[in-house]
Amino acid sequence: MAGRLQAKVALVTGASSGIGAGVARALAAEGASVGLGARRTDRLEALAEEIRAAGGAALPCTVDVTVRADVEGFVADVLDAFGRVDILVNNAGVMPLSPVAALRVEEWERMVDVNLKGVLYGIAAALPGMLRQGAGHIVNIGSVAGRRPFPGGTVYSATKFAVRSLTAGMQLELSANKGIRVTDIQPGGVESELLDHVADAETRQRFDTAWAGKERLLPEDVAAAVVYAVTAPARVNVNEILIRPTDQTT
To answer: Quick one: pLDDT at residue 170?
Structure first.
């Protein structure tokens, strides 16, 4: 595929559905070779075939981002296949919302493991190669929840506040000094599987009611924001993009 990312190599975590799959398609359409990482191998293989059929290059890799060795293996496999890593999109995330008083501690731990530690593992695996190259772009998929908490989303918001802080700190340490660009993409409500993780019935009902008759973002809307950031000229570092549905009131 010819495009603005021709000869670039990108990794996308959580690529089996939703935002991750949308980002992978969009990067491939711009000419990037794409490493697809997620746990659902069958979906990754189907997406890889779709990308190849359109003339692109894709490598599906089974990855659990909560396992550091998996993430390291993902990066190693992509390096073996494509020779370099130019773009890392840390997209994998979970959102099992519930009030703090419900004490769903295991869900809290899962959010920290995926939404924060998974991002850190991706950075730790991909950054050394970028530093050797003297160039690279790390995109973290945050959330509007990283700007303000909301009832039922307190712990989820805490993980996304952490991602926002992490991204800002990385920009200070890595951009001017090391040539590594960093971006925090902060979507509002998106049509995805995230709400399928919500086991707390009252919280799920509140969200369903709040969004009844309203239109959420589509994964391709978020993917367009990622493409905008990573195709900007090398002199431009797009640090944050906040993207809300027009119908979102908060």
So the answer is: 98
